[in-house]
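Tutorial sheet, problem 5. The two components below are modelled jointly, 685 residues in total.
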Amino acid sequence: MRPQARNWLLLAPAGAWFLFMLVLPLVVVLVFSFGERGPAGGYVPAFTLEQYLNLPARWTAFKNTLTLAPVGTMLALLIAYPLAYFLAVRANPKWRMMLLILVIVPFWTSILIRSYAWIFILGGRGIPSLLAMVGLENVRLINTPFAVLTGIIYGYLPLMVFPIYVSLERLDKRLLEASADLGSPPWRSFMQVTLPLSIPGVATGCMLVFILLMGEFLIPAMLGGGKVFFVGNALVDLFLQSRNWAYGSAVAVALVAIMLLTVSLYMRFVRRFSDARDDVSLM
Amino acid sequence: MRQTKQNPGQLNSMGYAPIPGSIAEFRGATKLFGEVVAADHIDLAIFKGEFLSFLGPSGCGKTTALRMLAGFETPSRGDVLIDGDRVNDMPPHRRPVNMVFQHYALFPHLNVFDNIAYGLRQRRPRPGASEIATKVERTLETVRLPGYGKRRIWEMSGGQQQRVALARALVNEPKLLLLDEPMAALDRKLRREMQIELQTLQRQLGITFVLVTHDQEEALSMSDRICLMRGGRIVQIGSPRSLYDEPASRYVADFVGKSNFFEGRLSGRSAGIGSVETRSGMLLSGRTVGDFAEGQTVAVSIRPEQCLLSQSEPGEAAAGATRIKVRIRNRIFLGEHTEYLVESGGMGEFLVHVSRQADAMSGAFEAGEEAWASWPREAAIVLENDATSEPPKKGNEHVEEK
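Model answer (structure tokens):
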């Protein structure tokens, strides 16, 4: 077989997957978004911008998503970086594997069950009852943005920890010796060497968590109790409850558009900041 | 080198009397890694402006010694002094020394200029931008990389990276420049060039260089003094010439240059000349180095280039010269000279190096031919027979160095 033919054959499964599972559904959603809702729900072909003009009605969902997703990503980063640093640099290599496994252990249970656990922890008989014992009455945690953020950080922390861990673990320790040798105290070596060289890991982690958070619906549904809802919740509602597929599609297209915009802006920022340092082989 | 006890200089504030003219000292410095003794009671003074090399096989403690100077290792016992101050507990970033790392350890996220400026920018108060730029440019010229400041590290070749690493250390004008196998990653020809350049640079700048290497040729060609190490200990310190011509033991003669060794018992000695009876009953005589008792097993060392090969028996030469009949086993052309492996009934096989001129005069020998090998008495040295292959005594096991 000619090498070129073989290349195409090898690409075929991935190509077919890409076409049927990604491109085609997106086209369908795009087409639906210009249609109308049928009398009994579903979709009636049409060409109207009505659905898009209606988008402001879901403003709260967009606002929640666009505030809690970046804030959640930032908080996850702030918690994940020290943890990843500890695992990659400070932890005894004997225990490292064990500790890494502990980080992913929560993934062995369904997020649904773990969210129920958080409902109990944050609910009336959980932390608020303990606070009441020290005199802080009527503290409400469940069904607040705080509860949703807690759930987000809890659920997505491992996704943030791993890429950062990898970039820190790959870091050549001799660079830190060189930095010390050139007169830099440890904390400045961290700022000048460790941190810049771990930016690729930070960027990957943030991207993973942010993209997944933009589409999140389970955690806001469970811990937000209908008070703090994301675009994802609006979509579930539109497609499955009110069966307004055309409007749902318009909301989905808007979400994808926002995501593309933010992610490409973010990529440009990261690329300029890290200046292709990913290509460097650490000699 | 136990100069520590003679010539005590002025006591400094910490109660240490540095050796006059020294810039750094090891005083009984010992480094243990668990049970392993990486450096064993090192006593050494490094003098201002000299080019000193730590030479030895991997695991001999040379890198550990260098890292104790840099501050990456703290001696378990004993002291390290820099410029008269005890620096055992001084962290690396406070020491007035800089290092060229084995694989350069250049910062991949910074360009050439920022790599070199790194050390200057750590100073407090921080020097001004123009001062930094001037110094960096000047240093780039010193290492013959003018105008390369904007380049990225990965755009530079191995040899250029090496120069950047050198510049990054030199720009700080350290009291000691430490070089950890800096040429290991370069090819042979480039290495030779860099050795010459490094030596010239050292003379020019007057900075004290301390080099770690396992390459005896490198140490011989560049150093003012070589400190030969084995199993964490210093075996011999001296000029390249003295190590080559006056080795303290068989180990030194074997590590520094090539040599033939003939084991035997010391049968007599007088006025610096020892007679040695080999196992086969042959008598050899040579200069004695060190104190030996008669009857002791010793090794006679003869450098291959000090042997002569001739077709006919050489005439009566100076007293004590050795002449033996040999058969040529093998001939290897090595460019500047030819290496013959010869065999004699009584002495076994040994090597003879014949220069091209001599080869041309007497004619090349072919394998299987008979010839006469001879050498003057001064060429033979009677040495302590410290076996080279067998590991040093327990507790000094070879340490895998970083």
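Marking note: Residues 276-283 of chain A have pLDDT under 50 and may be disordered. Full credit if you identified this.
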